[in-house]
Batch of 3 targets.
Target 1
Amino acid sequence: MSGVSEEVLNFAVIGCGTIGPTHIGALRQIDNVHVHALLDTVEDRAYAMAAQFDIQGVYTKLDDLLGDPMVDVVAICTPSGTHADIAVAALHAGKHVIVEKPMDISLEACDRMIAAADETGKKLTVISQHRFDHATQFLKAALGNGQLGKIVLADAAVKWWRTQEYYDSGNWRGTWAMDGGGTLMNQGVHTVDLLQWLAGDVESVYAHIRTSGHDRIEVEDIAVAALTFTGGAVGTLTATTCAYPGMPVRIDVIGTEGSATIEADTLRSMTLKKGDTHLSDAVASHALSVAQGGSASVVHAAAERSTAADPGAVWGDAHRAQIEDFLHAVRTDGTPLIDGRAGRKPLEIILAVYESARTGLPVKLGAVS
């Protein structure tokens, strides 16, 4: 783009667990970026990932990484409850920050991150890559154009499967202190973000949570909530990791002039009263894999792309699109689509669900700190 600086930006990925390879793979699809370094407090894990992706810089201490003048941007891929401390330190060290979902596990932590970005002028984005799926972008535009009329009902369901071994695989998993919650906070946060982005701000929630299908976890593996939206619509939110063998995420948006369904990251249908219909029989294979407790990685994206009915619904492509949006904001001193204030919104909804489940009462947004 004319007038936009295209100097190479050097990235460091912090956290060499499950999601790190997705960030590395997405970055390698983008021009004028370079993965300069990795950091993990477990030295063997850091060096193993560095060898896998031929990355030269390896750190085990955050201060050492943040003192590296070559690092322009950090991507935080660590347990949820550590996000704010790392992000605030990185922003004050002069680095731009990409942080994986959720933003953190408390609104106070989110507010510290937002304040640090404001104070330093550095850019902050929270990963909610499904906003960049073709299906989501298409439906968002249709809603913006008024094609579905006034939204009256909006539902979302995340009915996934996770084994007991999944929760036993890390001592932070399934804890309030580090996970911040269960199926809603960890698996459902992306869908909560999409639901409120499509249907509008949530006004209040009334919810129940349960731990029914797993042992040795503190947090919920089932959550259900009734929602009211500020625009007048109502809706439901369901999330679980008990649904063997795992079903793709589904979002239904019902308007006065038509209805639409997103399932498995694809637009399964949009039908309007005036006669227009959009249909797809395809599902994104990675969406089913993740729902069933498997993995999805840009390492396998080429094979998926070769058989995908919708090439834009391939795992990692939405991460790439979000990072590109963020880099444009860095290079033009603009605002990314999902800045800190946008990243805070789904967390506020989830914490309101937990508060409602705890008290047995409806909770208005803004009432939870």
Target 2
Amino acid sequence: MSKFDVLTIGNAIVDILARCDDSFLSENAITKGAMNLIDAERAELLYSKMGPAIEASGGSAGNTAAGLASLGGKAAYFGKVAEDQLGEIFQHDIRAQGVYYETKPQGDNPPTARSMIFVTPDGERSMNTYLGACVDLGPEHVEEDVVANAKVTYFEGYLWDPPRAKEAIREAARIAHAHGREVSMTLSDAFCVGRYRAEFLDLMRSGTVDIVFANKQEALSLYETDDFELALKKIAPDCKLAAVTMSEEGAVILRGDERLQVSAYPIEELVDTTGAGDLFAAGFLYGYTQGRSLEDCGKLGCLAAAIVIQQIGPRPQISLKDAAKEKGLI
């Protein structure tokens, strides 16, 4: 028996979300739709320029863990915060979602990571992230018994930015595979893929990673092509299972020679795309660890993503389990 369905590993970040227009992004040299890494000084500057903001625990893998728990899955999380106010917010929020989280906080310098997220009228989010305490995540924070008892260990590609986190991921993957478990990653964003393309491909082709999540732009970036069909043909043999999302066009699931497309769920209003990919992974992995068909996994992912983009913030504000029951998916 597995104690956990999915263990997620990521940068423990508190999101600070505010609305803005496109001119604000250009005036402040913010790359639209990307995750921009910033230092403490720029973090203070952007914070001072933000309009009314909402603080919410985020971080890609943390969002996925929260989504899994909302569906009724057993989720665990590794990620580093500091002993400060934002650290306390993050710990409270993820545990309140029902996620196992026992990574010890560490001092107050560097402080807990935060991401200033500017949401434009089209719902697109532009993230400006100060990693802070995240960079301290290392192999010593990998709890072997948790990895060994999780059906899937999932990590975010963003972890390739803080150097010691790479060691933590490789150690977690070693433990997972030694216990007959699977390892999954999300490519995180196209700019992240651009920074670590060769390493990501090696993780996939070496079998370190079994299951890959990507969106269309990330898949194109991974194979340096503008031809989406070519990218799909290339990713299929590079991993055991791939799920590629395409916004309002749904998702394509690939496993060996098997390929299927799942439609997106209709929405009433696009409010904020923050967390869409994270919640797709949550729904998909929930279905996967419950032994559901790939089609059902894709539908659960699309439903979770559709729900989160109709609200502000990346953590589900309604029960995903109830929503999935309503759609006959659970």
Target 3
Amino acid sequence: MSITDVQQLSEKILQNLERVIIGKRQVLELTLIGLLSQGHILIEDVPGVGKTMLARSLAKSLGCSFNRLQFTPDMLPSDITGVSIFNQVSRNFEYRPGPVMAQIVLADEINRATPKTQSALLEAMEERQVTVDGVTHPLPTPFLVMATQNPIEYEGTFPLPEAQLDRFLLRIRLGYPSLEDEIKILWEQQYQHPIQTLEPVLSQEELLQMQETVKSVFVSPAVKRYIVELSRATRENDDVYLGASPRGSLGLARASQVRAAMQGRDYVLPDDVKALAESILAHRIVINPAARLKNLTSSQIVNEIVSALPVPGGLMSKS
């Protein structure tokens, strides 16, 4: 598969998603970048803006299996991973897969579950397998977790620790639609929801090929240095208590490769890195108390770092 094929297939997926998620092109692109980077996505937004529809429409567009997990405080790890049940006929234990055994998993309100239950999902995300009663079961491919957090109503929740937030490649926000887009949504859903007529636009084999092809996108030494300097700048910032980890640098490099391929380029530009820095690095840093008193956010700090850091010059492509 060529870079041009990746660009064309990406556009087909995005156009299909836009039939359901209206007026959110940038968010859809970030979601597709997360999928092709083989990462996971954290969606932090208020109820009713289309988080579940985004995950469902992505699964239908790709012909992938889909499961939705509604996290609650009484949820157990086995409710995610599955259980072994004794079969009295065969006299053996049989594994009954949990809802995590799907290609696209929506973990709704992940911060409402206890840390023990959260860790069961996060282990599956990292290892791409689950272990039940000492037996390891691989997860299907492709595999994508889209977890949601409600940024309000923190009573009775268990916020994800920084080490677990770090396992998400991207943090995105849908936000409210514009006036015109919200009117269009009313028209589109007057008789039926557009997701009911959504059809797959590519095969799972093509998706896996896309995920492999983007790895060949060239990242020049200058751009690699720029990515690392961005991450290091978050660690050295006076307003930051804990900066982005090397996993953040790796994620930023891989996502930049995907963004370049989606635009038909076989090389990464600094603009790719700058466009993705906030979504990939902001949720990985912890700001100190003094910065909170100044009402600074991690997103503002990352954007300030991106603006202040000099952009590398020289050749970016292989030629």
